[in-house]
Hints:
Strand order of the largest sheet of chain A: 1-2
CATH topology of chain A: ABC transporter involved in vitamin B12 uptake, BtuC
Bound molecules: adenosine-5'-triphosphate, magnesium ion
Strand order of the largest sheet of chain B: 6-7-8-3-9-10
Radius of gyration of chain A: 19 Å
Structural class of chain A: mainly alpha
Shape of chain B: globular
Largest sheet of chain B: 6 strands, mixed
Largest sheet of chain A: 2 strands, antiparallel
Low-confidence stretches of chain A: none
Number of strands of chain B: 10
Distance between the termini of chain A: 19 Å
Order of helices and strands of chain B: EEEHEEHEHHHEHEHEEHH
Number of helices of chain B: 9
Number of domains of chain A: 1
CATH class of chain A: Mainly Alpha
Number of helices of chain A: 15
Radius of gyration of chain B: 18 Å
Shape of chain A: globular
Number of strands of chain A: 2
Strand content of chain A: under 5%
Mean pLDDT of chain B: 92
Strand content of chain B: 15-25%
Largest interface: A-B, 28 and 38 residues
Helix content of chain B: 25-40%
Low-confidence stretches of chain B: none
Oligomer: heterodimer
Order of helices and strands of chain A: HHHHHHHEHHHHEHHHH
Amino acid sequence: MRQLWQRWQALPAVLQTLVFALVFALLGLGMTDFQLSLVSEMLIAALFALSLNLIMGYGGMVHFGHAAFYGLGGYTVAILTLRYGVPTWLAMGLAPFVAALGAVIIGWFCVRRVRLYFSILTLAFGQLLYTVVFQAADFTGGDNGLLGIPKLPFINSEADFYYFTLVVFFVCFFVIRLLVNSPFVLVLRATRENAERAQFVGVNVRRHQLIVFVIGAFFAGVSGAMIAEHNSLVAVDMFFWATSSEPILGSLLGGMYSLVGPAIGGALLIYLEVTITRFTLYWPLVLGILTVFIVLVAPSGLVGLVRRWLGQSVAEDSA
Amino acid sequence: MNVLDVQNIYKAFGGLQATNNVSLTVAKGEIVAVIGPNGAGKSTIFNQISGYFAPDEGKILFEGRNIIGLPPQEIVRLGIGRSFQRSNIFPRLTTFENVQTAVLSYENKALHFFRPTRSYNEVNARVQEILEAIGLQDSASQLAGKLSLGDQKRLEIGLALSMRPKMMLLDEPTAGMSPEETVATVQLVEHLAHQYGMSLLFTEHDMSVVFGISQRIYVLHQGQIIAEGKPQDISKNPEVQRVYLGDDVPHQP
Lengths: 319, 253
Ligand SMILES: Nc1ncnc2c1ncn2[C@@H]1O[C@H](COP(=O)(O)OP(=O)(O)OP(=O)(O)O)[C@@H](O)[C@H]1O
Ligand SMILES: [Mg+2]
């Protein structure tokens, strides 16, 4: 088992990503429409969690307002297609850039503060945006959201959407994987460990933090656009703070100090939510118990448990 | 010409005048010590030179340029590297990654997004060179937070060195080290200063280190400089004897 793991780790990034993608592609062949839809949603949640983890896991910035960029991604698609007749593919292509632009503005203020104050600012901006979207009903649909987002022209079935999601997810995953092994993220981890010392080796800490904030928002925008297209609708809940907590819990469950942990955790939460709400309406209760359990018993998440079992250092956080 | 020229700086914390009209100079390649009892204000002077905070009044010229008001990351890029009194490293990065971070930053590669860090052969060779210079090559893959206190202090010096400084500020570089480690570190620092023509301003409580390597000494007491001169003059100065050195002065040959 350990040997197998070592061999796997020696594979180049492209190959690892392709193997993953291939497994999912093959799985797709045997799935029902319900399962295809569920796994698509899981992948989208996984991407959302990955995007947050760049900021929170690698950057050490606890971010309570990430839903803002998920929402911006989704609403960009909805508003551009429904209000302005922009083709869906173009709206979806623009969505991550709108989210990133929002992050430049919001982030510019937030990175001026550290730790708790940073977190509170992100929460405040997130809720501010939520309120604006909620109130501007003429434009955003307010409480009702916006319905009837047109499908992409090449998507005619659940299976089509599933394969489209696979491509988007694995392209993003691959790019994030490159980032995680780059000088940028090494220096980012250093700012997480000791922002003060980082300055004294010539790092512009705020600029670094702002950049990762924007990159994370970009990928949150991608997942927001994908979920809007998947559901053919957007709801104002996309901006709500509870939505920000989903990738945080996903990251905790899967393990923050790793690349794949948050993806696994984010996906697993969707899976649990869908299966458990079939039996009971008390999903939030289950989620609460699960969270307490993770924090107390396995603070470095599932990946941490596996690493301990493999005899690796738990704190290791490169890919 | 003086590399560093500190002119009449003042710094108060509340009612406490931590730096009181301090002036000091360091010439190119010179090794200068600042000594004084606990709380005399040594670290506070270093903090002002390195941009941790600005003085309330006065001037700090580095190579003739006033650096007051510049953020630390810019001051370090002008060529002032520093180490901290209490080891100040990146604990959950490996020793190698600690130095790698500094070297990448120095070489303006901190904003490279897509190339794997391990493929930067020149950077990594330089990291290796620095680790060897500070004697930590065998701990390269250890988490820095797990190093002994003495090794963390050496890593401190390694981080400062990565910035190819023209001048180093070392705040008690050997605190927490064994006598053998102290000797090795002092030799390293002296060697570096000579090899690269680097200026050195340091504080140290270990008087054998101070009198062993410094060419000039400033004595600080309650935020004020009460004496300045060559080691042999300082050790004979009656006021210095009274407020600080006591019996601690090593006998000069
Ligand atoms: N950031 C700060 N805020 C408030 N007071 C400070 C601060 N930094 C230093 N001081 C005070 O200024 C005085 C000088 O402190 P400093 O650390 O410069 O002394 P030092 O000479 O380095 O002492 P030591 O030998 O113990 O390191 C002390 O009384 C200290 O309590
Ligand atoms: Mg001090």
